[in-house]
Amino acid sequence: MIRKPAPSNQHPASNPRVRHAVLAIAAALVAGFVLLRPSSGPAPAGVERGSSTAEASRTLNAEAEAEHARENFEGELEIARRMQALDESLGWLRIPELRALAALGRHDELARRMESAMSLPVTLSTPEPFSPGDALVQVARELHARGDTVLARSYYTRAEAWYDELPDADLRDPSTGRALARIQSAEGRWFEALSTYQGLLYGDSASSEYWGGLAIAAFRLGDTTTPVSVMKRLRADRTPNRLGAPALWAARIAAALGRKEDAVALLREAIRDGYTGLYLLHHEPEFESLRDYEPFRALLKPKG
C-alpha cells in the first residue's frame, strides 16, 4: 500500500541519514539493473476496435491533439464536444474538453465539467485509459503549463485524495503507485517520489517510466550519478514494441541535467520508435528548460 507522507516537521527527507540511505538504495537498484521483458498477456476486452464509433473517436481525438499542439484551443474544444456526442458515458472522450478549458482559462466551466466527469467509471480498454484521478492530474498539468500554479495544486490535491480513497486492493496496484509518483514529482515532493519509484521497480524492473522517474527524483535530491547511469541504460534499451518509452525517459533525464542537444536527439529517437505524444510535452516540467530552445520548438511544431 502507498503510504501517505508524514507531517512536514518529521518528514524523513529532513533526516540526512535517511535521505542518504534512500539515495543509496536508488544507486544499488541501478547497479543491479535487470531488464525484464514485459509479459505479453491477452489484450483486455473492451470497445470493439473496428466499430464505427471507436474509429470516429480515434480520428477526432487525433484532430483535437493537433489543434492543441497548434494552441488553437477553441478549435480543440469544438472537436472535443463532437467527441463527447459519440458517447457521453465514456470518460476518455471528456479529456480533450477538460484540457482545452484549462488551456483557455475558463475555470468555472472547467470545474463544472470536471465535477461531471468525476462520476464516470474507470476504463482500461478504451483507446485511451480513463480514471477520474488521472483526469484531475491531466487538468493540473495543463493549468501548471499555463501558469495557473495555485489552481493546478488544488487539482493535484484532489487527484491524490481520489487515489487515497481507493479500496486497499486498488491502492496496492502498481497503476496507483505510478499515479501517486507522478503527482509527487509534479509537486516537487522528490523524496516521496523517489521512495515510490523504488517500490514500483521492485515489482517491474522493465518500466522506462519507473527508472526515469527514479533518476529525476534522485537528481533533484542532489544525486548526479544515478541519473547519468539510468540515462545510459535507457539509451541502450532495444526491447521491441516500447513505442519510444526508453528514449523518451532518457530525454527527460537529459533535459533535467541541462543537456539540451541530447534531449532533442533522444526525443527524435522516441518519435522514430513510435512515440506520438509530442502535443503534450509543453507541460512536462522536465522540458521547461527547453521551451525557448529553437530545435525543441521546431520539433513540437505541428507538421502540415
Structure description:
The protein has 304 residues and is mainly α. It is 61% helix and 0% strand. It contains 15 helices and no strands. It is globular and about 50 Å long.
Name some characteristics of this structure.
304 residues, mainly alpha, 15 helices, 61% helix, disordered N terminus
Give a short synopsis of this structure.
The chain has 304 residues and is an all-alpha fold.
SSE topology:
Elements: H1 16-31, H2 52-69, H3 73-86, H4 95-104, H5 107-117, H6 132-145, H7 149-164, H8 168-171, H9 174-186, H10 190-203, H11 208-220, H12 225-235, H13 245-256, H14 260-272, H15 294-300
The proportion of residues forming helix, as a percent range, comes to 55-70%
The counted number of beta strands is 0
Strand count, sense and closure of the main sheet?
A: none
- Radius of gyration over alpha carbons? 19 Å
Q: Could you list the spans in which at least 5 consecutive residues all have pLDDT below 50?
A: 1-11, 33-50
Please, what is the average pLDDT? 84
Residue fraction in strands: under 5%
- List the helices and strands in order: HHHHHHHHHHHHHHH
Task: Report the principal-axis shape.
Answer: globular
| Total count of helical runs of at least 4 residues | 15
Distance between the termini: 47 Å
